[in-house]
From TrEMBL:
Pfam family, one: ATP-synt_10
Name this protein carries in UniProt: ATP10 protein-domain-containing protein
Gene Ontology process terms (BP): mitochondrial proton-transporting ATP synthase complex assembly
GO CC term (a single one): mitochondrial inner membrane
Region (Disordered): 49-70
Taxon lineage: Eukaryota, Fungi, Dikarya, Ascomycota, Pezizomycotina
């Protein structure tokens, strides 16, 4: 039979252990840390049992840039000729055949050196690689037109575009541009076309159209409508009769509709960085870009272009005479 004294001893020990657990001093550091953390939280409603530590000295407020600060890109006059180093050829950039460089027969080291060389050449000729934030400044203006035409010896080539004209299908711009001075309008929307018209429109630039009328055998105007959207291209094809009615029959072959996607290399090399903006190029008989403009005509840009056209006509007439 169990004795009362034997039962009482374990019970006393249990009570003493429990009471000592409540009375044993604990480290207050974790509790203070937690409470201090809670004091910084604005979303808590708990009271702080300790005096809150004052917040550190607030730092200077950082300014958040406003919408106007996004337009940090300022277009500048072209500092050097733009275009390709090699002359264009009919049949290029049709979008049907992708030319891939062949590295067969090369060692791994030779292949890497050749690829590096191609990369350096690509980035070295890309005048527009550092242009950013252009879509929100001056209605997308990419660059300011150069006041004087580029020298023939330094000028670079306008690429070949392949598309349909109002006169025929599967045509190349090189066949039309070669042999004549050309004022080339490039756009992809009505907004872009309206921008190009501020340079070359009949109502705003009567002097240019007088030059075109006086020397039709030397100078011409060419339109390149880049329409990569299939639906929009179909609508243009449906209303071609309106386009034909708005221009003489001899100019039908000078209006191109390009349906194939224009490669990034072409866009970056000649400055077609904004697909919705209009561009104007002055191209000589050898398909070299002698002058270029973008967006809406500003300042003396239109007059600068007219002087360039007159100078090229004079040079061409002298060489023919």
């Amino acid at each position: 039979m169990l004795q009362p004294s034997r039962i009482a001893v374990p019970i006393r020990r249990t009570i003493r252990d429990v009471s000592s657990a409540f009375s044993r001093p604990q480290s207050r550091t974790p509790h203070r840390t937690i409470i201090k953390r809670l004091s910084y939280r604005s979303f808590t409603s708990a009271r702080c049992l300790y005096q809150p530590v004052p917040d550190p000295k607030p730092s200077e407020p950082t300014t958040t840039p406003g919408p106007q600060d996004e337009d940090i890109f300022i277009p500048k006059p072209l500092g050097q000729p733009i275009g390709f180093r090699d002359p264009p050829q009919p049949g290029q950039n049709t979008g049907t055949v992708k030319v891939k460089k062949d590295y067969k027969g090369m060692t791994l080291k030779e292949r890497n050196l050749e690829k590096r060389k191609d990369l350096v050449e690509r980035w070295g000729t890309n005048y527009f690689r550092d242009f950013i934030n252009i879509r929100k400044y001056r209605s997308g203006k990419t660059f300011v037109a150069n006041p004087r035409i580029f020298k023939k010896s330094a000028a670079m080539y306008f690429p070949n575009f392949h598309g349909n004209t109002l006169a025929a299908k599967n045509s190349d711009t090189t066949d039309v541009l070669r042999g004549k001075i050309s004022v080339v309008n490039v756009y992809s929307s009505q907004w872009g076309e309206a921008q190009a018209q501020t340079f070359t429109g009949k109502k705003v630039n009567t002097a240019l159209h007088q030059l075109l009328a006086q020397s039709p055998h030397v100078v011409q105007m060419v339109d390149i409508n880049i329409e990569e959207n299939i639906m929009k291209a179909w609508i243009i094809a449906l209303f071609q009769w309106r386009l034909r009615a708005s221009r003489p029959k001899e100019d039908w072959g000078k209006y191109f509709v390009v349906k194939k996607q224009v490669g990034e290399k072409i866009r970056e090399t000649i400055g077609l960085l904004n697909g919705r903006v209009g561009y104007v190029y002055l191209v000589d008989q050898d398909c070299k870009i002698r002058w270029a403009g973008s967006g809406y005509a500003e300042g003396s840009e239109m007059d600068d272009m007219n002087r360039g056209v007159a100078k090229l006509i004079s040079e061409a007439t002298q060489s023919l005479g």
